[in-house]
Design a protein that fits this description.
This protein has 126 residues and is mainly α. It has a domain of 69 residues. Helix content is 39%, strand content 0%. The longest helix has 14 residues.
Length: 126
């Protein structure tokens, strides 16, 4: 496992009861089911990183699979329950988060300036 985001065994014990049971078709056709924990790891990576689905690293299940599960779980209310349970688990102090996510941009302005300075250097006319 590389430097991705993975649920601990204790976190998975909190979330597993919310995962809907996979139903098999009687004729045996259809997509094989993916491991729900692997899928949830991929979903959490997307939520932490803020990246688009297609940039999900190869160490997770295909992004289409993770996105499909995410949509199904949101529609059924499962995702809200899972994230609520995970949030409550962390709020109780059983595991401190070791990931800080900072998302934004920064452009400094000189003290007293109303906007940032223009870049120096001549611009080439096209």
């Amino acid at each position: 496992m590389k430097g991705g985001v993975y649920l601990s065994d204790k976190e998975w014990l909190v979330l597993e009861p919310f995962v809907p049971k996979a139903r098999r078709r009687r004729d045996g056709k259809g997509r094989p089911r993916r491991d729900a924990r692997e899928v949830m790891n991929g979903i959490i990576w997307i939520l932490f990183s803020g990246s688009p689905w297609y940039l999900l690293p190869k160490e997770y299940p295909p992004y289409q699979t993770c996105h499909r599960y995410f949509q199904q779980w949101v529609r059924k209310g499962v995702m809200q329950k899972m994230l609520g349970a995970l949030s409550l688990y962390h709020a109780r102090g059983r595991k401190s988060t070791d990931v800080d996510v900072v998302d934004g941009s920064f452009s400094s302005a000189k003290k007293g300036a109303t906007r940032s300075a223009k870049p120096s250097g001549a611009r080439v006319q096209r």
